[in-house]
Amino acid sequence: METSISKTQKLKITPKLALQIALPLVLLTIIPLQLAKNTPFFKTLSSSSSSSSSPNPTPSSSSSSPSNNVRSSYNTDHHHPLPSTKRTKCDLFSGEWVPNPDAPYYTNTSCWAIHEHQNCMKYGRPDSEFMKWRWKPDECELPLFNPNQFFHIVRDKSLAFVGDSVARNHMQSLICLLSRVEYPVDVSYTQDEHFKRWYYKSYNFTLAAFWTPFLVKAQDNDPNGGPSGTGLFGLYLDEADEARKAQIDDFDYVVLSAGHWFFRSLIYYENQRLIGCRFCEISNLTDYSIAYGYQKAFRTAFNAILERRNFKGIVYLRTFAPSHFEGGLWNQGGNCLRQKPYKSSEINLQGVDLDLYMAQLVEFKKA
């Protein structure tokens, strides 16, 4: 199994619509890895597709979002090449970001799913050029995301984003892309914005996001604690987040992600016993590296999923996303003023970012 940073890992199993499902996930999740018992990561571009049905959770509510009406037919005319009927292999993860004058496909004003505090333009972003890019694999063209085609593929199915705020952002982005065809109905079980479920009635498709930034059992020991004053959290590294784990059973596709919450001050427990910490500055406690707790958390999360007898779906792992701040950390004068992405020759994954990425790969391969 390859461990190249630019490539995804492959499991030795049979393909099922994975490309069509993976394409929007590729656009939303830079380097996804797949954890499944009977399905591989399929990196073949083909214009043919088929759809199989599987059980989908029944929505528990009929409360409405801004609108649940089917939108007018989406115009698929665009300037990006469409895939030919000839099947060709392509590494989707080896490529460059290239200019895309047609972007963006939605904004804060055109998509209701983006929260007010996420309005970059309102809070000082002076330009919009940073949004006008698209991913171009070296060996092929990625077709423009087609919401009609996506709905056709996921009819009678369900998809959940599980993890931190990046997982929530992925769900919001997908809602915005799909809103050109249909608005969903809010069928959430709670008013808590951290746990949202949306239902697309015309396609019997459920989309959800479940908040679990550490993936394991966690408690907020002191909201203002730790050397940075951003909280002191207790992580039970060998105990899964039971509430979130039980919710995935009914889903056909799960995108798992976690990352930057592990940079906070953390207290580590194993076997119900205090073993040490990360950046806590508490005397007589062993100070572990950030990768230690991160790797243990993913080990526990993977094992918990594989032990779920009722879960028959596919899990995609969204690997660690490095911080985008330049000139300092987020709380030390760092900024996000870059207008274009790095080229592959301009930056290398290294240091803590590389350590966390490799920690995920180690546990992924074990699972």
Automatic annotation (TrEMBL):
Tell me where it mainly resides: membrane
Per UniProt, residues of the Trichome birefringence-like N-terminal domain are 89-141
Q: Which UniProt keywords apply?
A: Membrane, Signal-anchor, Transmembrane, Transmembrane helix
**Compartments (UniProt record):** Membrane
Q: Which InterPro entries match?
A: TBL (IPR029962), TBL_C (IPR026057), TBL_N (IPR025846)
Q: Which residue ranges does the record assign to the Trichome birefringence-like C-terminal domain?
A: 142-365
- Cross-referenced Pfam families, in alphabetical order? PC-Esterase, PMR5N
Q: How does it sit in the membrane?
A: Single-pass membrane protein
GO molecular function of the protein, one example? O-acetyltransferase activity
Residues annotated as coiled-coil are: none
Which regions are flagged for Low complexity bias?
Answer: 46-75
- Gene Ontology, cellular component aspect: Golgi apparatus; membrane
UniProt-annotated stretches for the region Disordered: 46-86
The record's comment on protein family reads: Belongs to the PC-esterase family. TBL subfamily.
Q: What is this protein called?
A: Uncharacterized protein
| Source organism (scientific name) | Opuntia streptacantha
